[in-house]
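User: structure tokens for this one?
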Amino acid sequence: MRERKYRKPPIVEVVCEFRFKPSSPWDATIPGLIYERLNQDFPKRRALRNVGMQVQVEQKGILFQPQMEEGTQFLREDERAFVQLQPRRISVHHLAPYPHWEGFKPLIKKAYKSYLEVVPDPPILRIGLRYVIKIDFNSSEVELQKFLNVYPHVGSELPQQYRAFTLQLLFLQEKQRDGLQLRLSNAQPTKENTVSIILDLDYFLIQPDSIKKHRQ
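Assistant:
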């Protein structure tokens, strides 16, 4: 596939995340030690508290239990780029405007290297690279098939106009080692008489044991 670079990429956020197995070391001193290595580029520090959902499969069914997730964010001065740290998980984020891969990759390498200096050789559970793209159309009606290779298909016996949709696909890559999850959905329009959609691409590692050695 030919590489394309856009003058104004419609990317609202890009995330690179590393998750490590439960056997990986973790304690309350780790965030501070990592911050010491990142504070020149990410001087701002902020506590993070999210309510997540823990899924448990039991004989009587699937149980969903709310779970408080705590972590720390290290932010750049402009807050458009930041590192997010949670137990056995580190992710690097960049908001719009996207600096292209050449600008994002050094941030990933620095954050990952800092983690490995504090927690040497942690066993990897998941690696993911995610792009969240928002596309705005200056029209109240849009035929998505004219612009995208993936779009909702509505049979001829059904109404052809719809206001909301969500589409999700999972593609296997690299001999099933990796996965590409594609989500397409409508979004809140930026202004009246327009249409906005979100294209969410998440490329991630499915087989963690295929990664034998960390590279910085």
